[in-house]
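REVIEWER CHECKLIST
Item 1: Sequence provided? yes
Item 2: Single chain? yes
Item 3: Sequence as submitted:
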Amino acid sequence: MATLSPKRRRLDNRHNRFDFFDIYKLWQIRFMTSFIMVSCNAYCLSSVFYMFFYSQQVCLSVALESILSCTFLENG
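Item 4: Structure as written out by the authors:
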């Protein structure tokens, strides 16, 4: 079994630590991008739902207004 010299072992340790740091940075970047994407998607979905419910409310109010005006015209 071959043993590594102290200098070689030091280089290997530094290389392993560098790999770990790279993986950590990649994970951090991936987490940040996924967080940004999720927040953007949530904002888009909330705005779409807001527009949908607002349009439904407008349609309901217009429909109620037309029904009320029709009943008032029939009764009047």
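Item 5: Key structural point noted by reviewer: The mean pLDDT is 70.
Item 6: Recommendation: ____
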